Amino acid sequence: MRTRLTLALLLAFLLIFADHQLEIMQPVRGALNSVVSPVQYLAVMPEQGLDNFINQVQSRRRLVRENQQLKEDVLSLQGQMQRYQFLVRENERLRGLLASESREERMRMVAEVIAVDSDPFSHQVVVNKGTRNGVYIGQPVIDAEGVIGQVVDVGLTTARVILVSDQSHAIPLRAEASGIRVIAQGVGDTNSIELMHVPHSTELSEGDLLMTSGLGGVFPEGYPVARISNILRDESLPFAQVQATPVANLDRIRMLLLLWDSNSELQPIRTENEPPSADESGNEGANESGNESVDKSANESMEESADSEPGTAEPETTQGEGV
Amino acid sequence: MMMPRFAQRSIILITVILSLILAVMPMSIAVAAWRPEWPLLVTLYWIIALPHRVNIGYAAVVGLAVDILLGSTLGFHAAAYAITAYPAARYYQRIRNFSLSQQALLVALLVLIARVIVYLFEHYLNNAPLMWVYLWPALSSAIFWPWIFLVLRKLRRRFQVQ
């Protein structure tokens, strides 16, 4: 009995050491995640079933109304798009005049959250896309509101996303108005992140929007992350205590967007045998992440996969919004 | 009717997998804080009921599965489950004679110990701040223990798992 305990503990401590101190566990973790992914898919099934059921029994009138609403939304978004395209071109031209690099285009793919960690020490979610879809470690993840986090583990069909609110996560930011650079660290609370090493004399003020600065090399520039909620200038402390509230609702994320840099060798892979409705099914409802299930940039040569998913694979480009 | 041996063993495995599913099933934040430590409860039951089938090693493997599912550093839950399985495996005969409420108290204590162990690991290795919320499930686990116990005992007798 005692030897068994000793043996089990010894193995556990070895694992902890290997996983915590050495980098060698990354591929092992990926494989293990693939092994347990059925459990995660099973865990989310009742909820999805319920959603489907609700979709089925929704009255026709409600659907008509929703359709109407969506059409209006599309119209207004298209109107904004025209303006946006104009601004993009103008921005490119101006950047060309300044001889600075133009913004690169990004590709995105919608992923659905299939598991949320019940462990308060780690703010992570598991999404239903993995190496089979070209997901890679360190990939930025956003939703309709702003930055969610980045990918930390990838299995074959699942990936684990660490949220910006996780206590082990930090993200380089820039205040939208003043341009001040800061680093925000999670504190283990989905409603709050903390800005580190902010001097008392800072020009930051409450309500300032913080955008990604693009300096860490992980997150592209110009995506909104958080809004400063509270600044405590206690002179007895070495730095001002600045709290910010993430703009994305980190505690109720359902649909996410995975981002790919279009000129790197890592590219999204749209699997042919993936049921084409897998992406859309969750999208039909009134979720805020939009209906572009499979966006791709126009210069990509993936027309075949585009054909297999009619209506969802409109060639479209997205760009990191400028400063 | 005797069931084939693999079928008997698969009952144990199925209940453990079900408990893992319950452990990661998405829930609203308010309820999730009270989520009982399902995998540990199920493992403890089987250790007390069939100590020659399910032992400390089994508990460590279940803990490892929890580690993978929750994304914590591999080995945290494995170590915590192995340590809490030890008293159960050692004193299973005594625990079997406890009343359900006494067992529930013991389970609360064991879940509390498991949670404290995981917390200590998280605190010293990953700088986790102390959150009392994290210890609440000890209480909810105790509340759910009688049901877990009765349901699993029924299953065990129905399928004659030995």
UniProtKB/TrEMBL annotation, chain B:
Involved in formation of the rod shape of the cell. May also contribute to regulation of formation of penicillin-binding proteins. It is a multi-pass membrane protein. PANTHER family: ROD SHAPE-DETERMINING PROTEIN MRED (PTHR37484). InterPro entries: Cell_shape_determining_MreD (IPR007227), MreD_proteobac (IPR026034). It comes from the Bacteria. The lineage of its organism: Bacteria, Pseudomonadati, Pseudomonadota, Gammaproteobacteria, Alteromonadales. Belongs to the MreD family. One of its GO terms (cellular component) is plasma membrane. Keywords: Cell inner membrane, Cell membrane, Cell shape, Membrane, Transmembrane, Transmembrane helix. It comes from Aliidiomarina iranensis. GO terms for biological process: regulation of cell shape. This is Rod shape-determining protein MreD. It is found in: Cell inner membrane; Cell membrane. Pfam families: MreD. The chain crosses the membrane at residues 56-83, 104-121, 133-152. Coiled coil: none annotated.
